[in-house]
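cron nightly-structures :: item 1 of 1
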Amino acid sequence: MQFEYHLHNDADIQAMLASIGIASLKELFEAIDPGLRVQGSLNLPPALGELELEEHLRELAEQNRAAGTGLCFLGGGAYDHFIPAVVDAIASRSEFVTAYTPYQPEASQGTLEAMFEYQTLIARLTGMDLANASLYDGASAAAEAVLMALGATGRKRVLVAGTLHPEYRRVIETYLQNLEVSLEVLPWAQGALDPADVLTRLDSHVACLVVQCPNFFGSLEPVDQLAKHLHEVGGLFIVVFYPISLGLLKRPGDYGADIAVAEGQSLGIPMGFGGPYLGILACREALIRRLPGRLVGQTVDRLGRRCWVLTLQTREQHIRREKATSNICTNQGLMALRAAVYLAVVGPWGLRQLAELCLQKAHYACDQLASIAGLTRAFEAPFFNEFVLRDRRGNLRQELAQLEKEGFFVGPSLGRWYPELEDCFLVAVTEKRSRGQIDRLVERLAHR
């Protein structure tokens, strides 16, 4: 029997308590430690009318500093790229906004086709055999890739580059903390891994190596050599890539990656105060049955017409539960749609032009900023559109906070994750930043 009560008065409350077999609200909460219970009335202001509440919420919202209100040079995983209007126009259509997981293909052909197109575009972008559709964010995609490698190899050692995004490393640690697996963070020098050093750490127990390229510092890693060394001992190579960089850089599939993952925010998704974002995961066909998340396949119906279905679902929790390869079910389908529209609109040539603009503008900014007394490049490794500056003038965090007040969003400061880089910060430059805007930042930092 189910009970449903609308608690308008004391009589309603007493009826509810009687139906569940207790005498008072106090008895209802006896299981909670008294030290954790609020004593007395809550300190709440008087109720507001709709007009007053709307004004109050607007005042609170205006305390936020959005990237669009200033000049954004923020890096570290989320980037201020231009989003064509067509991305919002298509993604905001009601049939996409309200779509749910397409368990019933006969009622979900539009959603399934959109997912299939997304998978195809990601596979072409990365040079991999197939992609899923999709995961929650880049960090969870990296962790799921590690689980794939552990299951596929049966090995127990996981190597992670110290230049991988620190928050990605934390998520991987969380995923592995209750498994009988060793997680080793590889040291780095000059902003990237040393292939010779990595070679000394490889053996037949290594399941995978996780490398980011461009890495958290914006530097390019020696991925060709790393892939070669790893495959010689039978390990899997997991690469975290930056989607926009593939307009110029070699695709993960072309230098030997077994699994390629990424944060898809740069593909038509607003920075949005940190989300929702998009986890991209693509892999070799040999790993298809280890692939987490949704996988849409193309087939034909009984009349021979092309159609789409969710395929190989036995790895999903709604089919096998505790026996599933993965329990991932949040596929961020609307964000995947945005990425698909963005890639279709930009196209291969447009992506190359976009990457060239990011590269050229970032190197111009780096040259100008590094010429300021007290500012130097922290590393000499090649970079794409993001780099690390060392500020020897002191009080870095206060300076970044002051820049934010003046409308320059720069950073983050790296001391938060790397104590040895307490005086260093990231600068990222996208196609949206003009030469004049870069010069404004240079002038401001030069007259500190």
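cron nightly-structures :: done
The chain has two domains: 67-82+347-446, 85-342.
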